[in-house]
Amino acid sequence: MLFKDQVDFVMQHIKKNKLRVFMTVLAATMGCAFLIVLASIGFGLQASMEEEILSSESVTKIEVMGGEAQFSEEEVAEIEAVENVQTVLKTTTIDAEVKSFFEDRDTISGLRLTNFTDYASIAKPLAEGTYPKNENEIVVGYHFGQTLLNEADRKLIEEKEKAAKTEGTYYNGEEEGYKSSLIGKEIEIAIRSYDDPNKLSDRMTYTIVGVMPKPAYEWAIENRIYMMDEQRAVLENSFKQVIDENPADYQLFFERYDIYAKSLEYVKPILEDLRGKGYGVYSVTEQLEDLNVFFLVLKAGLVFVGTIAVLIASIGIFNTMTMAVTERTREIGVLKAIGASPKLIQRLFLMESTFIGVIGTVIAIAISYLVSFASNLLLPIVLEAATGEENFGNIQFSAIPWQLVVIAATISIGVAMISGLRPARKATKIEVMQALRQEL
To answer: Least buried of 41, 88, 303, 386, by fewest C-beta within 10 Å?
Structure first.
């Protein structure tokens, strides 16, 4: 019996029982679609968390445990000599607030010192401008202009904050501040005393040449000032003007060292190498490894629950195939009488159950992608309307990678074939004479 004839035999029964086959395909579709959509939640949440982690931290960054660990020049050289280490970045934070003045505006911010040559090699591109080349040049945070306020701005912010509080929301002052470009503008800064906020050091004039990139987190306000390391002595002298206690007893500067690999693939070998040398180091990629283990278990659980729905749908396939064997007993007898082997007869009915599984799976995949797209589009809108928050747009509620499609299709089609196996074997055991005597 040619393959074409086998297909015709299967299609003949499907056309004869369209409604029954349609309902069976629908059940298979619902089971497979439920499996894919349910498991896609795990994939979607994992993708969102990984994106958040990787966007908030440089994936090639290796942190030194303790934060303010002091490295000698020899230790820095030793670390930089480790294979595939790009640089050891030293940043110095000043333990004091800085007040900046520009035109009729002012703001309070933090201050950092760094080597901009090293910083430029690992940082994201600036939002605007360039890195400093002279000691009187500085780079400011992305929101520095937004926080430069005058009295009119402060009154407007206060009014809007009260109105937002009445409505149960929050206003962050994004509409106020200095809106023009700060590149090339001169500002004056002074160190402010913690004990007396009105006590300031002498003002120092600097030129803004760059603006840092936008922070990864929407809620983060970045208005720090970044200076060259060479300004350390100048700041120390200014700080002595506002501190009441003995400057020698006060630690003004806190140094931090971060190690950067040339690419993500080198992070783990560098971690192992540095730990072998006795350094306490950590990378965000280790957090991702723990996260992957957690989501692997979660996704396996969701696939297991979804598989139960597919197994329930298989009951319908089993019933349909059992009825098909009963209804076609005479045809089976005729096939056997003309020499059809048991393997051929079994194959015919397995083809039919497989056809139901394949059609149901294809439709389920299409439906699953539509549901996934709709949930990612509509759920943030619904949740924002229900809670009043506006940070749901960054969450991916559903994701369907090709691996999930392959797993779901294998389970769905495999279950369909197994469901048709017993009826197919039953068909091979029908006696020829008994089948031919059956009334039409």
So the answer is: 386
